[in-house]
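[audit] Reproducing an earlier prediction to check determinism. Same input, same settings, fresh worker. If the tokens differ from the archived copy the diff job will pick it up downstream; this log only records the rerun itself.
[audit] input (238 residues):
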Amino acid sequence: MSRIRIALIEDHDLTRVGIRTALLQKEEIEVVGEAANAVEGLKMIKTLQPDIAIVDIGLPDKDGIELTRELKSTTGAELRTKVLILTLRDNKEAVLAAFAAGADSYCMKDIKFDNLLEAVRVTYNGNAWIDPAIARIVLQQAQQNPGKQDTVSLNTKNSIVNADSGENQEHIDPYILTERELEVLQLIVEGCSNAAIAERLFITVGTVKTHVRNILNKLCADDRTQAAVRALRSGLVG
């Protein structure tokens, strides 16, 4: 089994060491390089071509959003590094700028380690992992500006959910989901992995997978991220 190759771009030494130490607890992950600023980070990514670059927004020379924008606009087809933004900023402007820059996944720095691992795995598999706090900010922006022409998109592997599309006003009947499925959906929105959901609800991981599959089918969602966004948007969960 090939390992997930990760590069860390974070200027705070203790934070970078902490993330590296945590990730290396898992044999499936290999940290192939580290950088403390955007210029070195961009060179490192192009040289090492990791599977995922974990990028802090608050870098000293240029922010992680600009680094992501440059990476996404200049890399060729041979470089397929995905970008996972890690940030303390939960203000609307920073969140929307991160989406626009084309990052693949978005996490707050206070994320639990298990959820960070889940984000890494989901991103590696080609899907978007969006921190529930960030998803809420985007959805709140959409609700405050229903007529705004500029679009804000949540990109997943197979879909783009536009914040200003007619889907914003869609109504999902809460009775379409069972009580247990609503519980599972709430935990999905909170960023829990299948294993964490199983532990919280005292059920097996296999049962969780069945519930997740049923939820995706009932919400016509391609993946967990899209299901979470639709659940938040329709008010199925808080």
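[audit] rerun output stored. Observation attached for the diff report: Residues 146-170 have pLDDT under 50 and may be disordered.
[audit] end
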